[in-house]
Amino acid sequence: MKCRFFRCVAVSLIGLTSMIASVSSLYAEVRLPEIFASNMVLQQDLKVPVWGWADPGEKVTVTFENQSQSVVADANGRWRISLEPLKANAKPSVLTVKAGNEIRLENVLVGEVWICSGQSNMEWTTSRSAEYQEALKTVNNPNIRLFHITKTASGDPQERLTVASSWKQASVESIPNFSAVGYYFGKKIQAELNVPVGLINSSWGGTRIEPWTPPVGFQSVPALKNFADEIAAKDPNSQSYRQLAAKTLSEYQKWIDGAKENQRFAPPPAFPNQLQPFSGAGQPTTLYNAMIHPLTPLAVRGAIWYQGESNMGEGALYAEKMKALIQGWRTVFDNPDLGFYYAQLAPYDYGGNPTRLAELWEAQSSVEKTIPKTGQAVINDLVTNIKDIHPPRKLPVGNRLALLALNRTYGLKDAVCASPEFAKLELNGKTAVVHFANAKQLKTRDGKSPDWFEIAGADGVYHKADAVIDGVTIQLTNANVAQPHAVRYAWNQLAEPNVQNEAGLQLGAFRAGGNETK
């Protein structure tokens, strides 16, 4: 009986050893992050990092087109090489990664790679866009590739995507559930540049901007020091975390020692909230950790962004958060020139203070004035229902974002991308004359007089203005305002204004004069 027992134990140990060896062998195989897969697009004209995992000390060789590079995995099994800049190529190639095993990525193209991110209006699928049926007529395009990231959050930066995805060619099967704004953006730049385009959709409806922002982004903006400090306090590698952890452990040890000496003892000390990791999709860095960090340091040209509804009411603070996001992404992708183009929110009846959306519009508008290689697409003319927070017309949104990229990233100056912009206020007796930039001739999209202009006297009370276009200026008057001091335009969440430039790009909300923000 005893022999049988020991024989069973021996067999079990052998089986366990074999299983461990099998698992060890599995993890020893050279591996790639999920973003590297067949049908992908590699970024042209930039160094292209390729990275992954293998056995510590194992030699890994990456081969693509006429390049072949080798590297030895470090003590943690990580490895990385950088391909020299590639030229756009619509002819499918094979990328191989070889160590003890070999990975072959088939049908790989070289062109332009963009990330599409934000909340529900970016997540909004092509099948739910107003232009979907028309889009189906020209959708089959092997030079547009789509990669969709599944929604997930994490308190710590993740090296791998939680759910594996795959690159898909644009087709009637792949575009219905892909971001409409992302797809229309990619279709426009692919047609204009005539190179392959890869689009990565990483978006989540109802999310704030803070979860998408990496720690380094918060650290780069002094106004967000409270976020940076909170994030650092939860980082096990930070000094503040180690100090608080040591203090907490000491307090627990004292409690344990005291509890052993007493039959009746008090509850243990409360665990400090500062040491609790972030969790869920609403807290800072969590979506970056799970849905963006696994992509880094992928070579990408830029990002398009449609978000802000969930940060409503923050006014100028939102501009600081956008700076953190942009500067953070440029750092983690090791690309200081990473283009960042965003959609200004559409008018919507949020209820409450009718001007708080205008204050967010103002914050969004300020970003492109202070950060290079950024740009705003004004979309206050695309609403079909003021009570629908998801305007179904996504094609013009994607096209306007594409015009910004074509002009400011790709240098195509014939791609007119800039909306009219307030330049100067001239107070002339009873008339306020507003001068505009980014226009050769102002007009209205409906042929009527300019609407949603208001003027105020020294009392600060605004009145609807009578507005007359004169070239690139607009003259404003009101019989009740003898001497104008301030003006504002579309300063209401319900405003669907009609002023645009000769290219059909809309004038966005602004205020000027008096004590208003300029």
What descriptive keywords fit this protein?
alpha/beta; 518 residues; 27% helix; disordered N terminus
CATH class of the largest domain: Alpha Beta
**What structural class is derived from the secondary structure elements?**
alpha/beta
- Looking at the structure, the CATH topology of the largest domain is Rossmann fold
How helical, in percent, are the residues?
25-40%
What is the overall pLDDT average?
Answer: 93
How many individual domains?
3
The CATH architecture designation of the largest domain is: 3-Layer(aba) Sandwich
Strand content: 25-35%
List the helices and strands and how they pair.
Blueprint: H1 2-28, E1 41-43, E2 48-53, E3 59-64, E4 67-72, E5 78-83, E6 89-98, E7 102-118, H2 120-123, H3 132-135, E8 141-148, E9 168-170, H4 180-193, E10 197-203, H5 215-219, H6 225-233, H7 239-261, H8 286-292, E11 302-306, H9 316-332, E12 339-343, H10 356-370, E13 374-377, H11 395-408, E14 421-428, E15 431-437, E16 443-444, E17 453-456, E18 462-464, E19 466-470, E20 473-477, E21 486-489, E22 499-500, E23 510-513
Parallel strand pairs: 1-7, 7-10, 7-11, 8-10, 11-12, 12-13
Antiparallel strand pairs: 2-5, 3-4, 3-6, 6-7, 8-9, 14-15, 15-20, 16-22, 17-18, 17-21, 19-20, 21-23
